Amino acid sequence: MRRLALLFAFAAAIAGTVFARQSSFIPATPVITEPAYDNQVISAYDVHMVTGPFAGAAGETHVCSDWEIRTPYSDVLLWSASCVTGTLAVHIHLGDGTFANALAGHHQLDTGVFYKLRVRFKGDQPPPDGSWSDWAERIFQTAPATAIEPIVLSDVSVIASPTWRDASGRDVILPSGSPQPFLRLEVAGVGTLLEWTGRDGTADDLSNPPALSTHGPLHAVCAAGGAALSLPASTVTFTDGSGQDRSITLPAISLAPAQSVAYWISEGGGAFADNAPPATTPDFSAPLTEPPVPWAVRQPGFRVERFATNLQLPVDIAFLSAPGDGPQDPLLYVTELYGAVQLVTRSGEVSPYATNLLNFDPNGVFPGSGETGVSGVAVEPQSGDLFVAMAFAVPGVTDYHFPQVVRLHSSDGGRTASGQSSILKFTDEPSGASHQISNLSVGPDGKLYVHVGDGELTSPAEDLTSIRGKILRLNLDGTAPTDNPFYDAAGPAKTNLIFAYGLRNPFGGAWRAADGMHWEVENGPSVDRFARVVAGRNYLWDGTDASMKNFAAYNWLSPHAPVNVAFVQAATFGGSGFPQEKLDHAFVTESGPTYAPGPQQLGKRVSEFAFDVDGQLVSGPVPLIEYVGAGRGTAVGLASGPDGLYFTDLYKNFGAASPIERGASIFRIRYTGVADFAADVASGPAPWTVTFADESTVPVPSAWRWEFGDGTQSEERNPAHRYTLPGTFDVRLTVTGAGGDAVRQKNGFVTVAPPVRMNPCGSSGVPGPCLPARPSTRVVPPR
């Protein structure tokens, strides 16, 4: 990239190599330019930290920079990057450092919190010698979790090439006109980042100006020019100045001659109406578009992608025990709350497996009476039959519905249901909306485990003659196993089915291979519970928040609404492609407030937990993904699949007229690994050869693609590239592995100076400075 700070730093480094080293000095205190002022509110996930001037006064040579983020009052270290060089010496992000103490293992700061940033320069001599400057400090505040944040930029990379395309993937072509029509991405009041202008109606001209002097929120302006302009909905893709790939969606545009329209762009890539240009403060009150994936990954090495769509209220997911590998082979089943089970193939194609499963009209308000119907689903491993949990109506009863489990059989390889039978049905156990029968699973003992909510009535939970507020254990024909904890051949039939009791609304459950135990997540009125299920145990729900803490492995002390849990483990599809350090971890969908728009403090995420063999919490909850859109989507259904975690978003995310409108999706979270690279010597006079080393942690890597920033590429794993012209170059590495592509781009990574006309050291007869020989060795990390 075209960064003056890097050129200054490189010039200082060359001076220190070519000319006699200056005497030791104390560097001047850095000047923090971003955050731009004390108490500035910025994103907790993407903190731009910028300082200068790294080159310092005449004769100064700076070696590296120390960066720290601390608590502002108790001065506890929370994040640091020690003695970093190159671009990181003057511009760094959270991903380039290490979290510590209360934030150890995290990948972002907490939201809505004050922090103190510190930075200092080391001068003259490499560590441990040399002198440090004084610390420069700045207090800043992170935005609340409910805030929609803007994309903050100062530059756009020349690689990968920016694109502007319609929904079919065709380039958007502006018509000819005078003046010319254009689409401009800018920092309002500062300058232009990218601009497409109409040429002749067959192609556009693209301008990528030099980096701006400061970061700012992304603003898009489209102008019609001298003729009317009509454009379809479109997507712009580019790589920003920090090396992050971006995608923004724009609505269809229709303008009369000389008209223009402006948009603010959110961190997720959605467009929001700017009704007061040329304002410089983003306004996210009027969303116009949503990105294809309104979810942000909060841990490195993962990617979230839309897998299937056009669903209605998808509640739960169950995978075939041995799905085929072909694109049209059945992969999973998903229940739809209002009376259906859909089949989804490997390619994401959705088709009906069973429909019209309810004997009542489920339509109602959200939150409220509309939250009832079909819920849990489990696949019987041997037959491939489905067990489906649902509510049903009793004639003459209008205020309640009742629980049942239906077994569905297929005679066409699991593509459609050919018959059904009810294996469990109670006409005297009324339940309310959402507090109904829910999760189903087939345990390692071959028994069917059934979760039943308390029906919004506290008293049944501890009543052993009721099945509400319980986890039941059944033979696959619906009868009671004789080894159930309360089985008595002469006792009540309902009591014989009970496995655990005293629960409020145990909506989600999963089996953990490490301890052979069933685990449940449970909604409370204000305190939610995550617990290991022990046969015969009373979990003591009595209507109070305090009772939700009994036997909890973890409690949410405010209502996050955990609705499903899945363990990533070797026993389930070999670990779903996740890395070894994630195996035996639990992941939970936190759905948050019902049908709430935008990001939410209490939910709309998938969180990670680690427990020891005794069921004690080791770490968590740590967000894996979080919602960043402006729509209604949330995280509900969850299951570990052959190639990742799959979850449902329950509602059509954006533009729906009501909660029940079809258009919800299944998303997949895949582990791609982290692409990374190093170089032997990344700066020198032209011509200069740089040897690159792949340092990626991509699982089962199969292909490498390097882009060197000068228009050339390589598919070698560890290439050597010769730069023939001076300049500052971005370098991009794409590694293809078992989980797809992982990308790392380092902007301004290589700096090549003009040729140096000097005599080789050791030559005689010519006075003056000499050019030392380039080091001939490098350290390559072991592979």
What is the 3D form?
globular
Output the number of helix runs: 2
Which stretches are low in confidence, meaning pLDDT under 50 for 5 or more residues running? 1-23, 764-769, 771-783
CATH superfamily of the largest domain: TolB, C-terminal domain
Structure description:
This protein is mostly beta strands and 783 residues long. It folds into 4 domains: 4-142, Immunoglobulins (Immunoglobulin-like), CATH 2.60.40.10; 152-293; 302-671, TolB, C-terminal domain (Neuraminidase, 6 Propeller); 677-771, Immunoglobulins (Immunoglobulin-like, Sandwich), CATH 2.60.40.10. It contains 2 helices and 57 strands. The strands form 14 sheets. Strands 2, 4, 5, 7, 8, 9 and 10 form a 7-stranded mixed beta sheet that branches. Strands 11, 13, 14, 15, 16, 21 and 22 form a 7-stranded antiparallel beta sheet that branches. A hairpin with a 5-residue loop joins β38 (517-522) and β39. Mean pLDDT is 89; it is low at 1-23, 764-769 and 771-783.
In summary, what is this structure?
With 783 residues, this protein is mostly beta strands.
Set down the secondary structure blueprint.
Layout: H1 4-18, E1 31-34, E2 40-42, E3 49-52, E4 62-70, E5 77-84, E6 91-92, E7 98-99, E8 114-123, E9 131-132, E10 136-142, E11 152-153, E12 163-166, E13 182-187, E14 191-198, E15 204-207, E16 216-223, E17 229-231, E18 234-239, E19 245-250, E20 253-255, E21 260-265, E22 271-273, E23 295-297, E24 302-311, E25 314-319, E26 330-336, E27 340-345, E28 350-354, E29 374-379, E30 386-392, E31 402-409, E32 419-425, E33 437-442, E34 448-452, E35 470-474, H2 493-497, E36 498-501, E37 508-512, E38 517-522, E39 528-533, E40 554-556, E41 562-568, E42 585-590, E43 605-611, E44 617-627, E45 638-641, E46 644-648, E47 664-671, E48 677-679, E49 683-685, E50 688-694, E51 703-707, E52 713-714, E53 720-723, E54 727-737, E55 740-753, E56 759-760, E57 770-771
